[in-house]
């Protein structure tokens, strides 16, 4: 049984947990994390959701998941990356790019990570992912959020800010407010 900490609309902890799979109570949110993995060539690593996934099976996505009760956002993205891809990054290697609040029933923290490996180096988690590929950044931005490819940011304003910050990240910026 997976438990999540609950937060209000302003990300203040509510002091209670919630069981995954049950509807999140109105006015409450859990925390989720996503990592945009980039290489120095300006490509984005996408993984394909396993065909048995309930939501969006076979779609391409950025690695991520829910923050477990008692975990920090950074601990969660480190764990999710290792679980879903087999990649072991240190917490200090991640850069928090953007926070998207009040998206459906979750707040999202979107991270960036530089990695130069090959898709063949990925170890897929059964039932989660089954393929990986590098996609040029401009190609990914053109299709992210359309049929077949999920986008880490849902609202258009967040999406445009995310793309702006990714460009800055590729230029070497590692601090975002």
From TrEMBL:
Spell out the molecular function terms from Gene Ontology.
hydrolase activity
The alphabetized UniProt keywords are: Hydrolase
Keyword Hydrolase assigned to the entry: answer is: yes
Q: Which InterPro entries match?
A: NUDIX_hydrolase-like_dom_sf, NUDIX_hydrolase_CS, NUDIX_hydrolase_dom
Segments traversing the membrane: none
Q: Write down the superkingdom of origin.
A: Bacteria
Task: Output the PROSITE patterns linked to this UniProt entry.
Answer: NUDIX (PS51462), NUDIX_BOX (PS00893)
Pfam families documented for this protein: NUDIX
The record's CDD domains line, in alphabetical order, gives: NUDIX_Hydrolase
Q: Which residues form the Nudix hydrolase domain?
A: 28-164
User: What are its cofactors?
Assistant: Mg(2+)
Q: What is this protein called?
A: NUDIX domain-containing protein
Give the species.
Answer: Candidatus Acutalibacter pullistercoris
């Amino acid at each position: 049984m997976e438990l999540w900490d609950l937060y209000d609309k302003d990300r203040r902890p509510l002091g209670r947990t919630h069981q995954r799979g049950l509807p999140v109570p109105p006015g409450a949110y859990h925390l989720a994390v996503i990592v945009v993995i980039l290489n120095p060539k300006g490509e984005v690593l996408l993984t394909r959701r396993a065909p048995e996934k309930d939501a969006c099976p076979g779609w391409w996505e950025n690695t991520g998941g829910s923050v477990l009760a008692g975990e920090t956002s950074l601990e969660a993205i480190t764990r999710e990356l290792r679980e879903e891809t087999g990649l072991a990054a240190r917490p200090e290697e991640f850069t928090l790019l953007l926070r998207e609040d009040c998206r459906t029933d979750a707040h999202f923290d979107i991270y960036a990570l530089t990695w130069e490996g090959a898709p063949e180096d990925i170890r897929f988690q059964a039932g989660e992912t089954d393929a990986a590929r590098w996609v040029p950044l401009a190609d990914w931005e053109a299709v992210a959020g359309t049929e077949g490819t999920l986008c880490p940011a849902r609202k258009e304003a967040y999406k445009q800010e995310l793309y702006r910050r990714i460009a800055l990240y590729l230029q070497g910026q590692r601090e975002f407010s």
